[in-house]
Specification:
The protein has 4 helices and 15 strands. With about 240 residues, it is of the alpha+beta class. One of its GO terms (molecular function) is ubiquitin binding.
Length: about 240
Amino acid sequence: MKIHILARAYELTIEVGTQETILEIKRKIEHCLGVPVLSQTLSVCDWELLDGLDLDDYPIVTEGTKIDLTINHNIPSKHIQITVKFSSRKHIIEVDRTETVGSLKEKIHIIDGTPIKQMMLFFTGVEMDDDFRRLSEYGVGELSEIIVFLKTMSRIVAEPPSRKLCFVVQTSSALLDSTCFPMDMKDSSTVGELKELLLARKMLPVDEYIFIHKQRIMRESCSLRWHGVENGDYLYIFKGMVSNG
C-alpha cells in the first residue's frame, strides 16, 4: 500500500507492506530524503510510531494515510540503537533508554519470532535475568550488543508469579466524557479479560474497543505484563477494532 510522509518542506509517497517495521520505513525515508534514521520521528494524529513494531500493529495506518515526519536537529534522542545477536543472525533494534528487559524480549519476539520463554539475554557476559529491570540498570547504551541464547525445552522455566497491578483506565472524550476508572488486576491478566471486566461492571457500553498503552495499541490476547504495564500507568480506550487486513 502507499502512504504519504509529510514534512515541513516536502511530501514523499512510498510503497510499504503491512509486515514492514517502522524502522524499515525510516530507512526508506533516509534513502529517499537523506534524513538519518536517528533524526526521524514518525507519528499519526500525534501518536508516535515505534521502531520495533510493524504496520500491522497500527490499524490507524491504511492505504493513503498521511504520516508526519519530524526531523530532530541536534536534539539528544530518547532512543538508542542496539544490536541483538543470535548465533546465526543479528538485528539492529531501536529501544527507549528506560525500557525494561521484558519489553526488549517482546520486541525481539515481534521482529524475529523467537518465543519469549526461550530467550536468555546476556550483556558483557552477565545474564539479564530480571524482566522488570531497565536496560540502563544493566549498563546498556548506544550501540551495545545483546547476545541471545535459546533455552532447551528442559530449561524453560515457569512464568514468574503474578503480581497485583494498580492502574488507571481512561476513556476518550468522544466515548464517555473522558472518564477515569482506577483498576486492580493481576499482571498476568490479558487485555481481553480487562475489557470483559469493564463490560461486566457496565463501565463501558457493549462495543469494540482499542486499548492504548504508552502510545502503543495493545493486543487482546496478551497480558498486562507482556505490554509492560506498571503500577500507576494509564491505559487509554478508543472505540474501534484492530484489523490486520
